[in-house]
Structure to design on (535 residues):
């Protein structure tokens, strides 16, 4: 009988992982470097292998976009392993620019490594994740997939630069939306077959931010390709979130004070003192609802905070309410979900997305630096690169995003095909995510469980109080959903909670409970997770 095999695929915004089990005895065992370098000659349809090298130092570089992806925050030594790079579907776009889906694979071979007493072999699992296969929350200390023995593959989403002007090319839009995932998955399986002389038997995919969206859309549109997925802080309704970014900026610019040159300064619309005041007011109102006043709002769904309780000026209160009520058109119809009030509003990440720090006429809030370009080039159809988003009309301009939303947004609620294939589905979302609403995520998950029969048999959602985007905030943001996924798929141990810790709460631990349960204090040492139960 062949051993279990699996592979992992990773992108700048997503990731898959491969496990490590013994290879079939019939497989030849050439020297590791030669086994790796031979992949340079592999012939795969519409694919060019540009590099196949043995990395003796085993260095894996940090993800320069880790605050968005939840990827590796620093360079890491992973041990000597094989690195393969290539490109799928190289072409010239309608805009005259080069396109193609570039990918990179990191994998150990079956060769005994020097000074290692036990063979370091491929576990036979595929995992889609950042290049090291890091757990897609930047604050997690969990062992990355590559270090667990998985083969990890990453990709660029089908466009050569992280700028939004690829939206001018229709195929590049499709690749970014979902097709690159399918293409790289197919190629990754062929590479693994060549490297190990055996097909992967397990395929996992995880990512944060857009990677989280890719994870959900992969489970929906490629339901037979993956055995398990983890979506962290997913931008699953990305097109509407892009409109909401403009909405937030409009509301905050109304109260932004002017500098000496007469320019409105977005960063000063709400000062850090304002945000600290709101955070404390939310805690005062809702912290104790879980049985213990400890700086964590576990009972986040029952928090009945109102912005007037924060004691801000009437103008700031109105702006805060408009932001948290969510984007609406002139009829009051919801365009994008509202948000839960939570303690993480004063976190660095909340400011980084909605306000920024710039004291000039050029704001540096990510809602603008990332959001404006993507809305004009990618989400609006056709692209309108010279569009003045300060004049965005939420009645007439919002519909211009619907066409892209149809190919991009992972909003399907019937996931029975993924379930039937035996797939396991885990979502992790920060309640204080400033760019993708946890309320919207909660509502979609409830609808999915309603529309997918017996959804509790394959899906779990874990909401993290206080956590911002892909980690950080006042939160227990160090946890391990990957081990939970492995145990669920391989041992049939459905995760009812995940143990968690966090730098914001030194020497403390807390269970993150599977929705709709929350951690409730039952007595004992409030510093320890065992003093809480999920109910």
């Amino acid at each position: 009988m062949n051993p279990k095999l699996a592979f992992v695929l990773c992108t700048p915004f997503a990731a898959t992982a491969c496990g490590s089990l013994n290879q079939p005895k019939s497989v030849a065992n050439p020297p590791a470097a030669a086994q790796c370098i031979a992949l340079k000659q592999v012939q795969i349809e519409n694919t060019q292998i540009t590099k196949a090298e043995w990395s003796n130092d085993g260095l894996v570089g940090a993800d320069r976009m880790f605050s968005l992806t939840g990827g590796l925050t620093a360079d890491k030594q992973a041990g000597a392993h094989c690195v393969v790079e290539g490109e799928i579907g190289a072409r010239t776009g309608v805009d005259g620019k080069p396109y193609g889906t570039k990918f990179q694979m990191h994998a150990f071979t079956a060769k005994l490594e020097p000074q290692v007493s036990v063979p370091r072999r491929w576990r036979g699992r595929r995992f889609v994740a950042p290049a090291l296969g890091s757990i897609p929350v930047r604050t997690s200390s969990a062992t990355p997939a590559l270090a667990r023995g998985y083969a990890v593959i990453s990709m660029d989403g089908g466009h050569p630069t992280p700028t939004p002007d690829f939206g001018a090319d229709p195929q590049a839009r499709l690749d970014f939306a979902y097709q690159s995932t399918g293409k790289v998955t197919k190629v990754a399986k062929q590479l693994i077959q060549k490297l190990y002389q055996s097909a992967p038997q397990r395929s996992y995919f995880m990512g944060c931010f857009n990677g989280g969206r890719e994870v959900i859309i992969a489970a929906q549109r490629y339901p037979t390709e993956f055995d398990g997925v983890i979506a962290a802080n997913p931008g699953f309704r990305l097109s509407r979130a892009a409109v909401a970014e403009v909405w937030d900026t409009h509301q905050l610019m109304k109260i932004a004070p002017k500098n000496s040159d007469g320019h409105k300064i977005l960063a000063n619309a709400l000062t850090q003192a304002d945000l600290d005041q709101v955070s404390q007011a939310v805690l005062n109102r809702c912290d104790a609802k879980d049985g213990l006043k400890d700086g964590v709002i576990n009972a986040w769904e029952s928090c009945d905070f109102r912005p007037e309780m924060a004691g801000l000026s009437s103008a700031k209160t109105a702006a805060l309410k408009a932001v948290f009520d969510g984007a609406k058109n002139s009829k009051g119809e919801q365009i994008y979900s509202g948000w839960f009030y939570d303690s993480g509003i004063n976190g660095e990440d909340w400011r980084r997305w909605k306000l920024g720090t710039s004291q000039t006429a050029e704001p540096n809030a990510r809602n603008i630096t990332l959001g404006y370009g993507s809305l004009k080039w990618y989400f609006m159809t056709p692209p309108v690169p010279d569009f003045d988003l300060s004049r965005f009309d939420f009645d007439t301009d919002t519909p211009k995003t619907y066409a892209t939303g149809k190919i991009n947004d992972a909003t399907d609620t019937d996931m029975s095909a993924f379930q039937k294939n035996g797939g396991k589905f885990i979502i992790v979302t920060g309640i204080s995510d400033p760019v993708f609403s946890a309320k919207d995520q909660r509502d979609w998950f409830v609808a999915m469980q309603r529309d997918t029969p017996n959804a509790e048999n394959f899906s779990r959602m874990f909401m993290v109080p206080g956590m911002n985007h892909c980690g950080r905030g006042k939160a227990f943001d160090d946890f391990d959903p990957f081990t939970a996924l492995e145990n669920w798929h391989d041992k049939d141990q459905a995760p009812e909670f995940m143990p968690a810790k966090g730098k914001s709460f030194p020497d403390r631990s807390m269970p993150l409970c599977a929705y709709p349960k929350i951690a409730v204090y039952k007595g004992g040492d409030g510093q320890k997770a065992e003093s809480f139960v999920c109910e």
About this structure: The mean pLDDT is 88. The longest helix spans residues 170-196.
